[in-house]
Amino acid sequence: MHRLGFKLELSIQVFYGSNPICKGCLSCSKDNGCIRCQHKLFFFLRREGMRQYGECLHSCPSGYYGLRTPDMNRCSRCRIENCDSCFSRDFCTKCKAGFYSHRGRCFRGCPPGFSALEELMECVEGCEVGQWSEWGTCSRNNKTCGFKWGLETRTRQIVKKPAKDTIPCPTIAESRRCKMAMRHCPGGKPRACHKNLYEHSLTEILVLT
């Protein structure tokens, strides 16, 4: 009779705040909550200020993962910084807001060679490009002479396409201003500068007046 009364006492739900702390327990303490859980549930030690008590849960809360053992299933804390949920103590499956998931870790920005997939907040293999070529010949209007200034261009090749079509590749061509090696083309007439044209026009105006 005494043993039956003890079992009935353990089956009664004891409330701490708004949570029934003895739900799913095999053994429970009024002060410390669950001590042992039913077979499929996870034991979680909850802390609220100076108080801590055991709970039996179907799934572990954010920042913890379920560890199944022959003795008792437990909720263990994720050891990955800025991790919201993890597969094991050293492999994060979902990072906290503002962080990208990459190979089980959480980063503010993706490592070199990887690009951010914003809709999933994951780092995926990005577009890989080769080395820059040497700067090309300074030219303008497809000519390498006849002008003071022109443009020179260098390029690089895409050596690996990104994992997703939505991930842009870095620029593969860029140009910069350059000074022509030859101002005047060989055998060609020298181009009149703006000053000579202005003086010629002014002389014509004076003669006409």
Report on the structure:
The protein has two helices and 18 strands. The chain has helices at 2-11, 194-208, and strands at 15-16, 19-20, 25-29, 33-37, 42-48, 51-57, 64-67, 74-77, 83-88, 91-95, 100-102, 105-107, 114-117, 122-125, 128-129, 149-155, 158-160, 173-179. The strands form nine sheets. A two-stranded antiparallel sheet has the order 1-2. A two-stranded antiparallel ribbon has the order 3-4. Strands 5-6 form a two-stranded antiparallel ribbon. The chain starts with a helix and ends with a helix.
Quick gist of this model?
The chain is mainly β and 209 residues long.
Average pLDDT, to the nearest integer?
Answer: 77
Which overall shape is indicated by the principal axes computed on the Cα atoms? rod-shaped
Ends apart, CA distance between termini: 133 Å
Strand order of the largest sheet: 1-2
Number of strands: 18
Low-confidence region ranges = 1-19, 190-209
Count every helix, treating DSSP H or I runs of 4 or more residues as helices: 2
Q: How much of the polypeptide forms β-strand, as a percent range? A: 35-45%
Organism: Pavo cristatus
Main location: secreted
Keywords: Developmental protein, Disulfide bond, Glycoprotein, Heparin-binding, Secreted, Sensory transduction, Signal, Wnt signaling pathway
Subcellular location: Secreted
